[in-house]
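User: What would this chain look like folded?
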Amino acid sequence: MGQIVFVGLGLHDDHGLSLNGLEEAKAADKAFAEFYTSLLPDFSLERFEALIGKKLILLSRRDLEDLNGQAVLEAAEKGRVALLVPGDPMIATTHVALRLEAAKRGVKTRIVHGASILSAAVGLSGLHNYKFGKSVTVPFPDENTSATSYSVVAQNKNLSLHTFCFLDIKTDEKRYLSIGEALSALLRVEEDEGKKAVTVDTLAVGIARAGSQNPTVKAERVSCLLNYDFGGPPQCLIFPGKLHFMEAEALIVLASAPESVMEEPR
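Assistant: Here's the prediction, encoded as structure tokens.
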């Protein structure tokens, strides 16, 4: 019986792989990869395959979710398999499900962690990581409701906690929800709910292309962020709760926030 090694690719390109991850990919009998759970804007498949000395077997959402990762599991029953994924492997529940199925079949698993958008975005913003509450995904407004996302922001704010928002993506369709679109969707829910969780005066932090050499980080009122040019994807969003004075200063220095954030409730 073989094993599956889940390897995180990091956030932006094929240079985000750790040395440990590189060795695992080289040593594997087969190397699989999926790129639908997140976007790596500057990832080069050709360059990466030359680096690890083998072809990558690319997996779709259907392969991992509808077919329960059958191809990976069958390969792992015969040898050593590396599954390369964007970010940190176990952030996506899809990979957790595959790991559980492997355990049921007696297939060993290991994890080589990679940089995660959760830690990267927090670091770029200067906010304190221990003050974050539950995270949530803001979905495409034409397919789902954003009421759940709004509810999580409201709950966290009641607890004086920050909220990290993933923004929905469909890599196979080249669709990536933007910060402006997410804010517009949440404002529409605000009109119905009226809890003042996300209004035009709410402070928010938009982050684009975390992990690249030129990420965009901007803290402002929602009214100003709606049409702010964050550039290309991937993008994410943070709604701060109550700010420590150091957090307020960090938003001004690191995220070009207005000086008025120093007057936010403590």
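The first helix runs from residue 19 to 27. If you want, I can go into more detail on any region.
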